């Protein structure tokens, strides 16, 4: 990647635009201060990057959301917490399998894992709010509804106030909770 100072870039601005569009190579502008650092990318390349991000995020992110994410550090945080949330949901899913298959009931373990999921979801939601991104634009409304009602309310209440698993509880876990968790994991 070519590098220029802000003064050089200002002097050769139109040639830089021509260069990045014709050669499909970005130009980095490096100044003494952070606010004078930037990268110039051709429009065609920018659109390709947005399309690739949209494809890799399985349609969860759209170009408007990507454009509104401006801070690179926040991008890393966003991606990290999205991954952490997905991993903790997968772990909760596995523990539900243990409950159903082995009829094991460990209230403390489930509450600990559930608390982690709630914490990761809250952090992820907080990052989106800081970036002024509506969570409904990132995750499907039905998924958010499932996630917040089934996992945050019903499941926590259920574990706190019910006796160890019975046959009807297995059905409830496998038919109601497990599909909603799997749906959330698919769309994160």
From TrEMBL:
Keywords: Plasmid
Transmembrane intervals: none
Family (UniProt): Belongs to the phD/YefM antitoxin family.
Function noted in UniProt: Antitoxin component of a type II toxin-antitoxin (TA) system.
Name this polypeptide is given: Antitoxin
